Amino acid sequence: MTLGRYDRRGFLALAGSAAAAAVAAACGDDGEKGGGTPAAGVTPLAAASPTITAGTDAGVVALRWFGQSMFLLTSPGGTTVLLDPFNDIGYAVPPPLDADAATITHEHPDHNNGALGGTTARLLRGLTPDGGWAAIDENAGDVHIRSVPTYHDGTLGSERGRNATFLFETGGLRIAHFGDLGHALENVQITLLGGPVDVAMVPVGGLFTIDAAAATEVIAQVKAKIVFPMHYKTDEIAFPLATVDDFLVGKTVERVGSTTIRFSKAELPADTTTMVLDYE
């Protein structure tokens, strides 16, 4: 994907003042490695509380996967952010979670059920009602949330429109949720992200998003230490996506055996590790 001149201006104008300033300044498969013991600093739910106790779990972030692209992030301070909540697409739809904030990368029904944030959530939509990019750059408790303009396809949105990547900064960690990313990143988008990220949630199922090969390229571009694959075929959905298997080939993989995991900046794995969560 190559951005035209108009689109580059749009990226800088719509990505928020902080990101624009950064741009100006910068102007089990056979192929798996590992698979048994969680990496240092990464604790499955079976060995830890799925929640965070503010003031006690210093620097620890929890992440819970519901399936598809829906996660609940809990910060060291106990702030909860719901990411890309789905409607009834096959996975169990939980009752409203009364989160502090909810982010929606784009307005497709497997990503935009804002009601699941409950009555307490500040709803942060990555796209405007007319399909343009919104400029999200704000705080929810001890979580700084920014949006970065991306596309749902590799043809500047001509097939499936636009998509917002969300960056969450908390506990010293930089955590990116790529929504329905449809292309490898360009330098301008990496710059808007502010450089490498520590943790990435990336779609791998292809068809509507990047596939295993392109997702692998994106992970290399952002130099993530922990990777959570999402938006792939499971027994719960009828979407004709690829399974996670192709993405896991040749990677260091940990099958967490839980829907929830905890991690911290101080104990990130030395090598990029793909964490496969169970879904709800």
Short description, anyone?
The protein is of the alpha/beta class and 280 residues long. It is 15% helix and 28% strand. It has one domain (5-89, 96-276): Metallo-beta-lactamase, Chain A, CATH 3.60.15.
Q: Helices and strands in order, then pairings?
A:
Blueprint: H1 5-14, H2 17-26, E1 43-44, E2 60-67, E3 70-74, E4 80-83, E5 101-104, E6 122-125, E7 137-140, E8 143-151, E9 162-170, E10 173-177, H3 187-193, E11 199-203, H4 212-222, E12 226-230, H5 245-248, E13 252-255, E14 260-264, E15 273-276
Parallel strand pairs: 4-5, 5-6, 10-11, 11-12, 12-15, 13-15
Antiparallel strand pairs: 1-14, 2-3, 2-14, 3-4, 7-8, 8-9, 9-10
Helix pairs in contact: 2-3
Explain what this protein looks like in three dimensions.
This protein has 280 residues and is α/β, with parallel strands linked by helices. It is 15% helix and 28% strand. It has a single domain, classed as Metallo-beta-lactamase, Chain A (4-Layer Sandwich). The strands form two sheets. An eight-stranded mixed β-sheet has the order 7-8-9-10-11-12-15-13. Strands 1-14-2-3-4-5-6 form a seven-stranded mixed β-sheet, with no helix packed on it. The longest helix has 11 residues, at 212-222.
